[in-house]
Amino acid sequence: MKTELQLTAFRFRLGETTAYTLKQLAEELINEDVVTDDLIKIAYVCEDSLEEIGPHFEKVIRELKVDAPKDRSELVWSVLKYFIREIAERRIPPRKGLHGLIEMAYHGLSEQFSVTEYVGDSHGIQNLYGSFYSYDDLEERPTECSIGGFYGLEAFPKLDEHVIQECKKWLKKRSEQIASHNSGGCAPYV
What we know:
By secondary structure, the protein is mostly helical. It contains 9 helices and 2 strands; from the N terminus they run αααααααββαα.
């Protein structure tokens, strides 16, 4: 449920969620004994409108210490950190994690990125961005594209491991920046 709350908070910040989704999440959290006054209001009292539910969900984000800043320049780093850490710690398959990262961070917050030389280089994700499309290359051109001498679907485990290592490098390189970003409060809801 922690994952769903985090992802929903990101989507809420990006303006990509519905009142129904927030009500459903509130009910699921309550059923898992995560209960706050605002979750109860969202699930059982509020009308099905973001205008009514939104302020209560804002309070839920604060109360449960969900890392979803309002400022879009900070939000992009939170989204990147979330997906990259999930991949590096093998809690999400690399391709699925990269899809979330590209969709939510790069496309959802595109105004936060600038390109010096490669797509994603302003935030150090250029290798991850390229790796995301390498999966497609391996599927679409299985006899032309390879990784470590492996072609097509047989190369996926090699690419997965490459992505995991890139994520670990990204986290290590940015550990001070991430620590300073996290210094604002307690650990998030677990």
